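Notes taken during the Thursday session

The instructor put the following on the board and asked us to keep it in front of us for the whole hour. The protein is FadR/GntR family transcriptional regulator. We were told not to look anything up and to reason only from what is written here. First, the residues (228 in total):
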Amino acid sequence: MEALPRETIVDVLEDRLRTDILNGRHPAGSYLPPERQLADGYGVTRTTLKHAFGRLVQAGLLETRHGVGTRVRDYARLGGADLLPMLVRHDAKWIHEIFEVRRGVGALIAERAAARATRSQRAELHALLEAVREADGADAVQLADVEVHRALARATGNRVYVLLTNTLFNAYLPVRSLLKGPFTDPAAAYERLAPVVEAVTSQDARLAHTAADAYLRATERIMLDGLA
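Then, after some discussion, the predicted structure tokens were revealed:
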């Protein structure tokens, strides 16, 4: 049996600070209290505080100015989509907004893939679709489904679509166990996704857009019903 990772004091402090920032205890644009005061308030050493600060600076929530202090970054105005995984873990309501983007981007990707996919990419899509039907267990089915969508993005020939697809999946795959509803039955998952792949490989852009929109709406509805 694989040992579970141990949570360190830095992990705990990072989570506490992140929660306090996202809950508005430390508002965007405000400077945090002096390090000694903040360390005493959280009951940690200044060294531990500095390590947690470093992680949150890297995450895009804080910015440190030498000789001035540490300020909460206005992540809502200046942040990027790389913040989404953290925001989803903090507040599940972000899932609804991610799914709205997923519908629009996903349908457009399918349309572009139908127009641009090469012969080898069309063959790859069929192989990846078959892997959905053959996957064992909801998690494996969901991950196989993800690979089909990554391949659709690659088939557009546009690397930005690939990065957008990766970002959206990175946002909710960490909580995918809560969103497994559409993937508990491999055959049903295959049947839902097959019309998208068939439309793309038949090079029918309009049908691909329609099929992808229908697929994304159907799976979204099942996922959200599961969350409810």
